[in-house]
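quick one: beta-D-galactopyranose bound model?
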Amino acid sequence: MKKTVVLLSLAVLMAVSPGAAAQKKTDGVRPPTMGWSSWNAFMLEISDAVIMDHADLMVSTGLKDAGYTIVNIDDGFFGYRDAEGNMIPHVTRFPNGIKHVVDHIHGLGLRAGIYTDAGEMTCGRNYNKEINPAPVGIYGHEEQDAERYFNEWGFDFIKIDYCGGHRMQADEEQMYTNIRNVINRVAKHPVELNICRWDYPGTWVSGVAESWRISGDIRPKWAFIRNIVAKNMYLSAYAGGGHYNDMDMLALGYNKKPSPFNDNLPLGLTYEEEEAHFGLWCIFSSPLLLGCDVRYIPEETMKIITNPELIAVNQDPLGLQAYVVQHEGEGYIFAKDILTRFGKVRAVALYNPSEEDITFTLRPEEIDLAGPIKVRDLCARKDLGTGSSLQMTLHGHSAKILRVEGRRRLEQTALEAEWGYCPAFTAIESEGGKYVPTPAASMGAAVYNLGGSAKNCLQWNDVYSAGGKYHLTLTTLPEKDAEIVLTVNGAAQTLRIPAAGGKPQKTTVAVKLRKGQNRIEVGNPDAALPPVDRVTLERL
Ligand code: GAL
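yep, here:
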């Protein structure tokens, strides 16, 4: 468990620091949902007893106090539809119906969640040997189910899956938008909606749901954690304003009772893997839904999932998702603002997904801070001291979440393409991908397949500047000559980019930036763009 920590030019060693959790919370956006969901531990073997016991456990274990307030009944509660099409719960799993289960959950001061499918069938019906063939998905019963689930039974949250919708080959944007509209019209109280269609659905989704899955189902194995992080690390521009990329349920807590998903492995993740998994879900502002049998959570896992300083990073009032600020070798560093936008305190993750140790060096200017930096390890809940930079060695399969405070905030001088927002982006339809690992590009990634329509552009909507005149350098990877329209705060100019055999090509122009936030866009409504690597800004 040896971990080397060096703060170079150590200036002061702080004995006490308030830590993120102790800071006063300002009003912010609705934070990611926290709670428990039944599928990964119980699959179809749920019952009123399982759900109500878990509600009780949320209180008795202290999880409710730590912030886990949703108890979600996933797939498997369905029985059949009666002659009028009303949903009747499974008669042996919920012999006394559903309402008393919801009342029990509410009686404990918790919120209740339910599950459906945008199409006619749920995933359990399609793939998990649920033999009752009744069409229990919401399709064609939107009003009726909304009335029953939210007004009659009283649910506060709904996860809407897509196995049935997928089978119907329906237009998912239309389907989910219709469901949202019906819920808004019918439900007598606010309902939170989670879309589950296993890839980032498209920019329409933030107008429809509070969160959406970006990947297939998680399992308590490192490869799943690594792959989900790899999928989400370039999606930071698509979370915000109280809407979040959902990295799926937490796969912690399986070390005493294996998950039915564990493919015959006796144990779940190692301690360091669990710590990394939780910390990364926190800094990426994913919903935090426990997926294990809460009765069997080991003490050390309980400590990880109730760590108030990590939870504060997840529930931060700004509601931002971390993005890649350094990628060297196989290691990554992620960062996001916490508490104050463009303030001098940031949350940072050092992440080693590889099999070997990695020594990280974090230089303050990489996270737009002027040094020296004061660093707190939020996993260990320990101050590490103050220095001109941070060096830390991490084992393979691990991550450290840090609170880093600089002397002051610096203006942005680099904008990676991977941080940009594309109004036309949908992971499902983006052929060959948009955010693509590219060794020749800075931080190893570039954005592809832009251009050809006004919306298929790349925007940095929040560029923080001291204001004034700058040299803006756009780096692309052009195979052939191209034209790019660069728009800075509404003022457009066309850049001619000569072919460079797919190698990095820099194009520099003079621009004016405002003090504070600026908006920079690259695109071409009429023609394809070469892959875009980054923009750098140099004050004149
Ligand atoms: C999957 C979903 C799982 C679970 C399951 C139920 O599509 O990703 O989280 O809800 O369906 O059948």
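Residues 374 and 499 are 45 Å apart (CA to CA).
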